[in-house]
Design a protein that fits this description.
Layout: E1 6-10, E2 15-18, H1 35-38, E3 46-49, E4 54-58
Antiparallel strand pairs: 1-4, 2-3
The structure holds FE2/S2 (inorganic) cluster.
Length: about 80
């Protein structure tokens, strides 16, 4: 996890599999790379569908209340 979002572009209707915040094992964050299967985790990725063509900011900290979209919560987190 990191204290900043990931920017991603997509076309309307395109689906992306986002690594579940309770997993966090993907080697290609924020996207699921099936590491949860290899590690035996029971969490499934979150499917995000672009509602319009453009750029979105995916949460990188795992604390967003609108996960997988960043809601700015990372700005309130303490420095590590
Ligand atoms: S990165 Fe912004 S709320 Fe998580």
């Amino acid at each position: 996890m990191r204290k900043e979002p990931y920017s991603a572009r997509g076309k309307k209707g395109y689906e992306m599999l986002i690594c579940h915040p309770e997993c966090g094992l993907s080697g290609g964050m924020p996207y699921c790379d099936n590491a949860h299967v290899v590690q035996g985790f029971k969490t499934e990725p979150i499917i995000y569908t672009f509602t319009k063509t453009g750029t979105v900011q995916f949460c990188g900290c795992g604390q967003s209340k609108t996960f997988p979209i960043c809601d700015g919560t990372h700005e309130t987190l303490p420095d590590e």
